Amino acid sequence: MEKTTIIGLDLAKNVFQAHGAKADGSVAFRKKLTRNQVLPFFAEQPVCVVAMEACASAHHWARSIRDLGHEVRLIPPIYVKPFVKRQKNDSADAEAIAEAASRPTMRFVAVKGVEQQAAGMAFRTRDLFIRQKTQTINALRGHLAEYGVIAPAGVANLGRLVEVIQRQDSDLPIAVLELARMLVDQIGALQHRIDELDHEIRHRAREDSVASRLMTVPGIGPICASAMMALAPPAESFARGRDFSAWLGLVPKQHSSGGKERLGRTSKMGQRDLRRLLITGAMAVVRWAALRGPRVGSWLEKMMIRKPRMLVAVALANKMARIAWALMAQGGVYRDPTTAA
């Protein structure tokens, strides 16, 4: 009897669907599993390839099933969708996962370790607190605007609102002052948590040798370096720096046909948080160069003369991503081209 070579597992909270396929692609079994039955079921299976979509809880199950001796492959959900036949249900999804995993040109997601996921959670928690702080500041500004208290947008102008709230001779109703003070306290609590996470992330960046080398690149600070270590796949997953930049969505989007290349705007595919951090860091470099003047004859000077500032920042972020990949894959630290020459 021909053994099962690939098992497609459709993940869920409580009820999982497994689809076993033989080497010739024929169906070996279709089985529904409860959460408690998943690991005992795979412990009884002969060593094979287990494929799953890279979705919620996928890395946890990948680590657990890999510890049983199986080869685990995580597939981006967008690459599984074309293999779903007709109706969408758990059984069809599991079959599509197994079919997608058997393709020789399929792209897979690297399984993350516990520490890497913890670092990514710290970064995303910080990002959540920043969004909540921004929402609270906007709510405070909006509520006070209803009573004629106006302040420009931006965290730097929060002090104006706080000054009005704390003023003893304020004309605002007592109920409004009490609620506004609650919002100000919430902003302060969120800022305290953000500062704690910043301290933790900076400490991790200084302790990590790769993150320390990444921070030698102009425009890459502790937050960006730590996020790159936590959210990006291993450097060996990419053949060259351009592949890493393309994964981040910093290269032009193609719509070519008939031998004619048509390049459009950046694709904006891949990890959006890393892309945002790289562009933010690149914009800081561009602004600094605009104030002090870029180096004469440098690539940055030529770009700033011919192109808009935002376009220059995106192009610089593309270069930073390629440099970061080279440092992660080949080692060393960043050296300024003019200094190196």
Provide structural commentary:
The chain has helices at residues 38-44, 58-66, 77-80, 90-101, 114-145, 158-166, 174-207, 209-214, 222-231, 241-248, 272-292, 299-306, 309-330, 337-340, and strands at 4-10, 15-22, 27-34, 49-53, 71-75, 252-254, 263-266. It has 3 domains: 4-101, 2-Layer Sandwich (Nucleotidyltransferase, domain 5), CATH 3.30.420.40; 114-207; 213-256 and 263-340, no CATH class. The protein has 341 residues and is of the alpha/beta class. 55% of the residues lie in helices and 12% in strands. The strands form 2 sheets. The protein has a 5-stranded mixed beta sheet. A two-stranded antiparallel ribbon has the order 6-7.
